[in-house]
Amino acid sequence: MAFASRWKKGPSSTSSSRSISLPGGSRPEHRARHPFGKIPAFEHDGFRLYEAGAITRYVDEALPGPRLQPEDPRGRARMNQIVSILDSYAYGTLVWDIYVERVFRLGALGERAW
Ligand SMILES: N[C@@H](CCC(=O)N[C@@H](CS)C(=O)NCC(=O)O)C(=O)O
Description:
Blueprint: H1 2-9, E1 14-16, H2 28-33, E2 41-44, E3 47-50, H3 52-62, H4 73-104
Antiparallel strand pairs: 1-2, 2-3
Helix pairs in contact: 1-3
Bound molecules: glutathione.
């Protein structure tokens, strides 16, 4: 979600996507950007932020480009409901059970992440 929003807005910010699943946990420089050692971690003009929802909404509001969120309250509420459903009920299956197991681990992207 955070990466998709950056892609739609353009490359004027940085975020960390390197593998953090290293023996011993995430690197100290990553911990400085995300105290829980997770991804994504994001920086824009010296402003650091973590948590995908916060990053995505910031990208939408602070960066130029097409609006990513519906303008009307009901449309935004529906969007937030869908994001929450995906985070709460679909994330584990989609990311860890399917993407990580079948794409990442099997090297479908041309390299092994760990
Ligand atoms: N609530 C956080 C969740 C962050 C999160 O769990 N990220 C996952 C990847 S999508 C992660 O870093 N997993 C690796 C790990 O837990 O070691 C957010 O929305 O940014």
